[in-house]
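Side project, low priority. Logging it here so it doesn't get lost.
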Amino acid sequence: EEILEHSKLIIGHDQFAYKKGTNKTSALIKCKHHWLKWLDEDAEFVRVLSFDFRKAFDSVPHDIVTGKLKQTNLNPYIINWIISFLTNRKQRVVVDGIITRYVDINKGVPQGTVIGPFLFSLM
């Protein structure tokens, strides 16, 4: 609950991802509104850049997330818990019954977790 309240202060009002009551359709409607407004204000054209953030959750550096967390007003105990949650993670894969060795995970936000989208949004 405390993290949710702080996320409202940290995450900008123009961000639509991972916020209750918003979605990509809302984001596109707002973009279209701005584009049409600019064209109505005598713009001859509007440039639009689109990015594909594949593997975005997997590429978030832990030190950057840690730094961003420390800049918040979150309870220090919660910050330390999140840092502990991100550090010293390991993973391995099983393919056709063969288990690989453990690999250290030093970047990325764990997907499928409740806190993952919040941590990604800090970026």
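Brief comment: The chain has a mean pLDDT of 84.
Revisit when time allows.
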